[in-house]
Amino acid sequence: MAEHAAIVGAGVIGAAWAARFVLHGIDVKISDPSPHAERIMGEVLDNARAAWAGLGLPEPVEGTITFCDSIAGAVTGAMHVQESAPEDPDIKISILEAIAAACPPDTVIASSTSGIKPSVLQPSIVNRERMLVGHPFNPVYLLPLVEVCGGDLTSSEAIETAMATYSSISMKPLHVRVEIDAFIADRLLEAVWREALWLVNDGVATTEEIDDSIRYGFGLRWAQMGLFETYRIAGGEGGMGHFIAQFGPTLSWPYSKLMDTPDLTNELVDTIEQQSDEQSGMHTIRELEGIRDRNLVAFLRALESAEWGAGATLKEQRGRLG
Amino acid sequence: MAEHAAIVGAGVIGAAWAARFVLHGIDVKISDPSPHAERIMGEVLDNARAAWAGLGLPEPVEGTITFCDSIAGAVTGAMHVQESAPEDPDIKISILEAIAAACPPDTVIASSTSGIKPSVLQPSIVNRERMLVGHPFNPVYLLPLVEVCGGDLTSSEAIETAMATYSSISMKPLHVRVEIDAFIADRLLEAVWREALWLVNDGVATTEEIDDSIRYGFGLRWAQMGLFETYRIAGGEGGMGHFIAQFGPTLSWPYSKLMDTPDLTNELVDTIEQQSDEQSGMHTIRELEGIRDRNLVAFLRALESAEWGAGATLKEQRGRLG
């Protein structure tokens, strides 16, 4: 069919969206003012193809990629628009207005924002009931999760259409039923990020020690079960009730640093950058991406064998493509 | 040698400590007043043996397990004591006093507490300079991380000895250099737990939706790289500096629920239990343990192939045992 997906803003996130669509046989048209956009797209597509092969999926019949000089050029006739512009409400709103003015009236317009409510973004655009948030996770071509959140003015049809579109490119759409800032996953991430900043700020732990405290321990649990399911098991035969009875009271202890946010002084930012360089400056970002992707591929294949969690999504993908 | 490790308190955590020692050829003596202790030990050891086989490690020459009627019986002559009593300072202090009175004067006494500072636990025990925290992560026989934290009165020799003991049973000891409540990992976990409770309390998301938001997305990243390393990559070619410049300002946005703790009302606890039952009530806790362990084994083997993170610890283990 002649319909295509439009990618507006093609940095690391937008390019990975494009790669996911293309590998599922869907043509994409891209609008991005950066002189680096074509190069980034090529690099991300290389990563995505390597991941696809690593997953052992059938040889893809790839869609085409067309770079357009304008937003209108990319979104005219699109069956889905994914906006991945910088995380600034004013910038996003002006781009969304331009998208809405040029694309078909019932085409879903999804923003990749990780924190801004769709109700903030949608009021001034044409046919605003088809605007919503579709928040993905880096690397978008490998991680299945996308949070779908409508605003006050979003129609239920738009939500359903977006969920179906994301399912068709082998994602796990999670409908965020109540509109809140930062949706679900990023609220959890923000909470951790704040606390981690305090630990660095106060000299308690380095970035590497904090990362190690995650990846040698609870991170390995979370990759398959998340938070509550892990605690259900930790409660032993008593399950969740026993767990909460045992550990719930510690919640009221004065871990006061959890309640506040450190100032991002130049000194703190310098400290983080320096520690991060010491931790992994021996690898380029490109090498780290490769390591990350190969590990993710191995995890997803392991989970597929177990027919569990994100592996179930991969299994569905294989079935649909096979 | 005649020396053994003493396990005081053998619930899910203590029994898994015992399994880790025994599978590394070290005899253990256990003290636990529960009538269920021997049964739990048997079940946990079965799980640990299955995990060991799953990791493809050489057939273990197992140490012996002896149940003792008293704390003194278990700790007399011990080369290391691991206390895993209920998470209550008064209970732990009285048990630690009994341990210290009976075990050799220079034997390290480690508490498995997930949050209580060693300075709170150690003042009243004999030879208190050898007391410290060795905080493990469930399942202890599979996850390598153990946080080692000394109190005001702990000697550096005790820290070094504990680190060496944990390394000898193929763990990744992380020295928590600054003593704080909840150490490092559990401060991060507490932050997430609070926010997750708000999301359930406010009806934003169910326990399953929250778990899915982790295990289909960032959880898969954290299992291998943790928080900062992931963001280093997310910053693209600009690395950490670019990432903080881009997303740092959102920290000051009013995500106010992060700053407070919901009351653990009966209603909230009931809601969590009910949602957790709907999510995974079709599996027994035992089945969930099996699924978790098989997934962890697969992740660790994948990471070992990549010579990365927790896989590096497994590789060392294989080298030491091989």
Could you please describe the fold and organization of this structure?
The structure is a homodimer of 322-residue chains. The first copy, chain A, is of the alpha/beta class and 322 residues long. Chain A folds into two domains: 172 residues, 3-Layer(aba) Sandwich (Rossmann fold); 97 residues, N-(1-d-carboxylethyl)-l-norvaline Dehydrogenase, domain 2 (Orthogonal Bundle). Chain A is 52% helix and 12% strand. In chain A, strand 6 and strand 7 form a beta hairpin. In chain A, helix 1 crosses helix 2, helix 9 packs across helix 10 and helix 12 packs across helix 13. The model of chain A has no long low-confidence stretch (mean pLDDT 90). Chains A and B meet through helix 7, helix 8, helix 9, helix 10 and helix 11 of A and helix 7, helix 8, helix 9, helix 10 and helix 11 of B.
Average pLDDT of chain A: 90
CATH 2nd-level architecture of the largest domain in chain A: 3-Layer(aba) Sandwich
Q: Strand share of the residues of chain A?
A: 5-15%
Let me know the CATH homologous superfamily of the largest domain in chain A: NAD(P)-binding Rossmann-like Domain
Which CATH class of the largest domain in chain A is shown?
Alpha Beta
Q: What is the number of helical segments of chain A per DSSP (H or I, 4+ residues)?
A: 13
| Mass-distribution shape of chain A | globular
Euclidean distance between termini CA atoms of chain A = 21 Å
How many discrete structural domains of chain A?
2
Strand order of the largest sheet of chain A: 3-2-1-4-5-6-7-8
CATH topology of the largest domain in chain A: Rossmann fold
